[in-house]
């Protein structure tokens, strides 16, 4: 399991302001990922990743239908890939494509939780996340897991980043069909899902310099670790020295966006590589038929 790491003070990173409602339907607890950004912060116009490998499908749940994107081997184990607060943009598609190509091969599926909307700057992303129906998003995840199991995947895991990381943990509590989960820098509030009640193995990853208090900072990561320990289920919590929030976003566009938001890691080139290796081992262990 992880060892305790005391966070260092970040002097170059703008503080993340936890001032708006994270889970409106269930709680008045105020948590936000919006940032204090200087007036010089430019609206980011970042291209979507274009690849013929990713196919758009539609999934039915209850009385609604939503779009999803799938890539990978036909009858491989499935992994539901959950978006950051930006929406289904180039970075989450990059992650899904990479996951599909990991040995022994996976079918990756991205449910569009925002129904086609994408935030092009932090204010838009915050607005979209504030408006998300979180219990409804969990239903989308359950429908996505069930779609994969009905289309050739004997076992299905869930992974997510930022907002999606919190939902990945929530799905391990609320979606009994989930066989394993890996969360990156996000923890759900207890009002949505108490991690002490996970029903599937959970691996979680955090940056030592992440300062989103109550959501993905080191204190929150350590509190999550204690709850996972109490669950009695297999778990791992990893904290990466010198890493800030969203350290898995290593594409040129993703790196540029992180820099503009003040998320600058201390020199350590292999954060994402190490995390991907741990992700691969975890999913292979629990999704093998």
Quick recap:
The chain has 289 residues and is an alpha/beta fold.
Please provide a written account of the structure:
This protein has 289 residues and is an alpha/beta fold. The protein has helices at 90-101, 122-130, 134-150, 163-174, 218-231, 252-260, 271-287, and strands at 55-61, 64-72, 78-82, 107-111, 156-161, 180-184, 202-207, 235-240. A hairpin with a 2-residue loop joins strand 1 (55-61) and strand 2 (64-72). Helix 3 (134-150) crosses helix 4. The radius of gyration is 17 Å and the shape is globular. The two termini are 26 Å apart. The model is unreliable at 1-25, 27-31 and 35-50 (pLDDT under 50).
Strand content: 15-25%
Unreliable stretches: 1-25, 27-31, 35-50
Helix tally equals: 7
Outline: globular
What percent of the residues sit in helical stretches (DSSP H or I)? Answer: 25-40%
Radius of gyration: 17 Å
Largest sheet: 8 strands, mixed
> What is the strand arrangement across the widest sheet?
1-2-4-3-5-6-7-8
Mean pLDDT equals 86
Distance between the termini: 26 Å
Q: Count of DSSP E strands? A: 8
The chain-level structural class is alpha/beta
What string gives the helices and strands in order?
Answer: EEEHEHHEHEEHEHH
């Amino acid at each position: 399991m992880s060892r305790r790491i005391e966070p260092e003070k970040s002097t170059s990173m703008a503080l993340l302001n936890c001032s708006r409602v994270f889970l409106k339907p269930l709680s008045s607890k105020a948590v936000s990922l919006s940032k204090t950004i200087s007036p010089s912060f430019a609206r980011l116009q970042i291209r979507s990743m274009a690849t013929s490998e990713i196919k758009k499908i539609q999934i039915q749940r209850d009385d609604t239908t939503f779009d999803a994107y799938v890539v990978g081997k036909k009858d491989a184990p499935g992994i539901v890939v959950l978006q950051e607060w930006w929406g289904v943009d180039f970075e989450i598609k990059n992650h899904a494509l990479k996951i599909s190509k990991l040995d022994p091969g996976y079918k990756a599926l991205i449910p569009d939780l925002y129904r086609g909307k994408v935030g092009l700057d932090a204010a838009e992303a915050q607005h979209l996340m504030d408006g998300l129906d979180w219990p409804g998003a969990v239903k989308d995840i359950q429908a996505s897991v069930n779609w994969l199991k009905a289309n050739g995947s004997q076992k299905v895991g869930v992974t997510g980043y930022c907002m999606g990381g919190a939902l990945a943990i929530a799905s391990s509590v609320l979606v009994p069909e989930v066989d394993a989960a890996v969360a990156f820098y996000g923890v759900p509030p207890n009002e949505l899902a108490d991690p002490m009640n996970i029903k599937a193995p959970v691996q979680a990853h955090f940056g030592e310099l992440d300062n989103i208090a109550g959501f993905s900072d080191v204190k929150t990561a350590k509190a999550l670790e204690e709850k996972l320990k109490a669950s009695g289920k297999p778990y791992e919590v990893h904290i990466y020295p010198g890493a800030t929030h969203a350290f898995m976003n290593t594409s040129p566009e993703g790196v540029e966006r992180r820099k503009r938001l003040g998320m600058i890691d201390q020199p350590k080139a292999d954060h994402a590589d190490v995390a991907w290796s741990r992700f691969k081992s975890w999913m292979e262990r629990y999704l093998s038929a």
